[in-house]
Every structure is written in structure tokens, then in C-alpha cells.
Design goal:
SH3 type barrels; five-stranded antiparallel sheet; single chain; 43% strand; mainly beta; 1 helix; 5 strands
């Protein structure tokens, strides 16, 4: 994912499916460097990680 798309998802009132290494995550914060973000697992609010935005993947749901 690129920084601009991460910003759009982070700022949107809609819910998007985003994954990191195949695990569903929420974006908590985008860092000023434009390369990293803080995320947490959807099932665990306590476990946060700083990851490369390029490693985040938007999952497209089939409806």
C-alpha cells in the first residue's frame, strides 16, 4: 500500500479490510516519515506494532 491510500483509509468513516502479513489490522497512526504506521490486530487492542506502510495490504471483499 502507498502512503496516500493509507491516509485515505485512516481518515475515512468507512471500514476497510487491511492486513499485515495476512492478519487483519486497524491503522492507529500514520507516522510523519511517510513510510511507517502503528497498527493493532483487530482482535487485540493491546498489541500494537510499528510497520512499513508498504507491507500493508488492502483486502477486497467479494460481495
Amino acid at each position: 500500500m502507498d502512503y496516500n491510500r493509507a491516509q485515505e483509509i485512516y481518515a475515512s468513516p468507512k471500514e476497510y479490510e487491511v492486513s499485515y502479513n495476512g492478519v487483519s489490522v486497524w491503522i492507529d497512526k500514520l507516522h510523519d516519515d511517510g513510510k511507517t504506521a502503528t497498527v493493532h490486530l483487530r482482535r487485540s487492542l493491546e498489541e500494537r506494532s510499528e510497520v512499513a506502510i508498504s507491507e500493508l495490504k488492502e483486502e477486497y471483499l467479494v460481495q
